[in-house]
Amino acid sequence: MAFTHPSYHQLRGDCYQRLEFLGDAVLDYVITRFLYEDSTQHSPGVLTDLRSALVNNNIFAALAVRIGLHVYLRASSPQLLHTIDTFVRRSSHYDTHFPLEVSDDVEIPKALGDIFESLAGAIFLDSGMSLDTVWTVFYPLMKERIERYTACIPKSPVRQLLELEPEGTKFERPRRTADGRISVCAHVLGKGRFYGIGRNYRLAKSLAAKRALRVLHKLQETQHTSGPNGTVAPASSLTTNR
Predict the structure, then answer these.
(1) Model confidence over 133-150: pLDDT tens digits?
(2) What is the pTM of this model?
(3) What domains, with CATH codes, occur in the chain?
């Protein structure tokens, strides 16, 4: 049941959705507890950034592929299976850290993160609701990522953009695309409009911010390289991303 997608045509009982709901809450708690109890005594802001970076579908989907959970997924949706296959094949082109950092054009199937959470829910129930047992299983899977992020505290792209351009950044009202996804525009005054498209508002907003940051960082590099008397390309000449 923990790996049975709602689309599975031979579904006779429950799919993984209830276990996913439970596992999501369990992983959120055990990861948060670990970060809180860390001897570094992180500030509230850092704790928030770390938890946001570690408790999300992209990380869970990546880890699901790394440990091979995707081969046990039972689903009858050709589109989903194709998306998973593409994601897994793309992962083979990256180093051992893939696919925890992926390019913007890689679609990460939500179902992969779902079964990672569902597994946590199943272990929690089978262990007599032992949070320690869940963490004993999942900490080794997440140890490398926790250590990397703890050494270099990540910030969300949206937060980075707002800190870089606090007065000039505005996220416009989201729109729904023809295929049902969400499109968000990050308008940076004097720099351009940068678009992100994702399956929900949060992902689309994050992608728009990442694209804006990419251009702004290139602009900063150009200004730094040219020096105070050099010629810098005007902001209007920079290409925005759709």
Answers:
(1) 999 999 999 999 999 998
(2) 0.74
(3) 16-151 (1.10.1520.10), 157-224 (3.30.160.20)
